[in-house]
Amino acid sequence: MTTRAALLVLADGRFPAGGHAHSGGAEPAVKAGRIRDAQDLADFCLGRLHTTGLTSAALAAAAALGLDPLALDEAADARTPSPALRGVARKLGRQLMRAARATWPSPELAALAEARPRGAHQPVVLGLTARAAGLGPADAAHCVAYEAVSGPATAVVRLLSLDPFEATAVLARLAPALDQVAEQAAEAARHGIDALPAASAPLLDISAEAHSAWPVRLFAS
Amino acid sequence: MSVTATARIRAVADGRGATSLPVLESGGPLALRRTRSPDAAFARVTVVGAMSAPLGGDRLAVEARAEDGARVSVDSAAATVALPGAGPDAGPASYDVRLSVGEGAELHWLPEQLVSAYGSELDMTTRAELASTARLVLREEQVLGRQGESTGRLSTRLTVRRAGRPLLDQQTAYGPGAPGGWDGSAVLGGHRAVGQLLLVDPAFEGGVPAPRLLGPTAALTPLAGPAVLVTALAADARLLRAVLDEALKVLLKESKALRNA
């Protein structure tokens, strides 16, 4: 079965799953003066990719491989100490679930939606969605790893009025690292839930808590 | 010459409200001493570094078990400094901490900082297995480089399971050879001291403390279970400790109030 087009549909930023409202921690980083230009954005994206990007990609790969989604959801909780980020992950998971069930209905998606009516962690839902679309663990990992950097890059274009060509060039230069992280995530998934990476980013966790308390913000996270 | 050694602690409730230590076994550079506890209900153990360790190639481990109802506090006399090995082929060192806390038991694991010296390579893992009514206070601090020095390579993983289910899983990798971006604006933002303080307390089943910021680079976050984690970044070890000490004081007070409620 050929699945390349299904991967494009799932990875498309226009897939109606609500991701565009989130900056992946870029908004507080811009406010704190930690992202001021394209080079800062590249550093931010590389750090995010190798931490939460890898962790999320591995959860997605494991779900796509058919590991127990409820156990993966619990593993995702343990890897997300920030309640603000757990809330975001579940909200995005719920939105993706709606889009996924309309696009690629499957009994596994229905069962997870029923077990987690308020939303499962987004990478777990994405992995199951990939599975329903006939995609594999490496595809799911690629999708999530790419989201981990494309969200901040798009957000920084708006937050800093950064040249969109420059932001896209940042993403293009990250391509080898993205491939490597996706491969690592898919490989880890083959060794069971306990072997999944748990790479964490202290500054993302701390600033997510600060950001969620802002009275006015452009992005939800 | 690299060292392979394991130190062991086993604490049991003596049935008269105190805790005894039937196993207190030093291993290689990790010498254990029973020390005087400010709280009579707790036994106290201090890890005394008998020599500089870990060096490249060393494989060190500490196992501490608090059996049902036991209360024990473990600290250390000085910071642990990861140093390069003797030869160019010494390889990375490993340091594995294994904690287990039984029903109604309490373990305080409060070592001094782990300092990653220039040229060193250390892989550290900490695993805690908690019974459902266990209490745990755990502090971890990593300092990247000694004064004015750049850091070695340090990887850590902290895994806490409660009643057999995952509660917290955190992995870090810093220094030369770590995946890119570790020092950037998503991960450390140039800070050289990073620490976590974890308090797991069944009393939090009745209401876990609300999330709050403890400064511009420190946050207290309730986990998805009866536990609170403080994550802090600072310019140096002293500033980091000040944040974690203050957080510990407040958290112990809050958990005590919950238990007496």
From TrEMBL, chain A:
HAMAP family: UreF (MF_01385). The keyword Signal does not apply. It holds the Pfam family UreF. Belongs to the UreF family. UreD, UreF and UreG form a complex that acts as a GTP-hydrolysis-dependent molecular chaperone, activating the urease apoprotein by helping to assemble the nickel containing metallocenter of UreC. The UreE protein probably delivers the nickel. It is found in: Cytoplasm. Gene3D superfamilies: Urease accessory protein UreF. Required for maturation of urease via the functional incorporation of the urease nickel metallocenter. This is Urease accessory protein UreF. The keyword DNA damage does not apply. The gene is ureF. Keywords: Chaperone, Cytoplasm, Nickel insertion. InterPro entries: UreF (IPR002639), UreF_sf (IPR038277).
Automatic annotation (TrEMBL), chain B:
It is found in: Cytoplasm. It comes from the Bacteria. Keywords: Chaperone, Cytoplasm, Nickel insertion. Pfam families: UreD. Required for maturation of urease via the functional incorporation of the urease nickel metallocenter. UreD, UreF and UreG form a complex that acts as a GTP-hydrolysis-dependent molecular chaperone, activating the urease apoprotein by helping to assemble the nickel containing metallocenter of UreC. The UreE protein probably delivers the nickel. Belongs to the UreD family. This is Urease accessory protein UreD. It comes from Streptomyces atroolivaceus.
